[in-house]
Amino acid sequence: MLIHFLSSLLLSLHPFHVSVMSVHHSAEESSLQITLKIFADDLEEAMNQEGFRKKGQAYIDVLNPQDEQQLNVYVEQYIHQHLSMTVNGKAVKPSFLGQEMEDMAMWCYLEVTDVEKIKSLKVKSSIMTEIFDDQINIVHVNYQGAIKSMKLAGNRLLDEVLFGDEEG
Fold first, then answer.
1. Which of 43, 66, 93, 112 could serve as a FRET partner for 141 with CA atoms 20 to 30 Å apart?
2. Domain boundaries, the chain
3. What is the largest CA-CA distance in the chain?
4. What is the pLDDT of residues 103-120, one digit of tens each?
5. Considering the entire predicted model, what is its pTM?
């Protein structure tokens, strides 16, 4: 009985809090194609905090939503509150394209259009840092085959990667 309880407890908790964002520059489409992978149970907890969920609003059920379109609205609002980007010194707002569930993870898809090249990319991510002190938000940027990464956690929620201008 005790072993079953401990096994259930361990399965219900994951030992770390992390999100992984991949930013891929598409030269053909002059855009940044962004995927963001987050634990759905963590997102559910974050979106049901007092600072996000309005007083009197129904509980936001991420794992078993009654209304998928409304869930997309909430996810988009949450991401826009906790993620900001600057490309080549210009603030950009990624368009939310949608999300899908894979096991206990949610994949969110975003896009920034009209990006012909990247000289600098700043990312500020406070995703779930309001509820988890140990939250780590990892960002991988793929530009012209070069991959650079950022680790946003603790006091450092903003970072920047620079790319040289090989084209001249």
1. 43
2. 16-162
3. 68
4. 899 999 999 999 999 999
5. 0.87
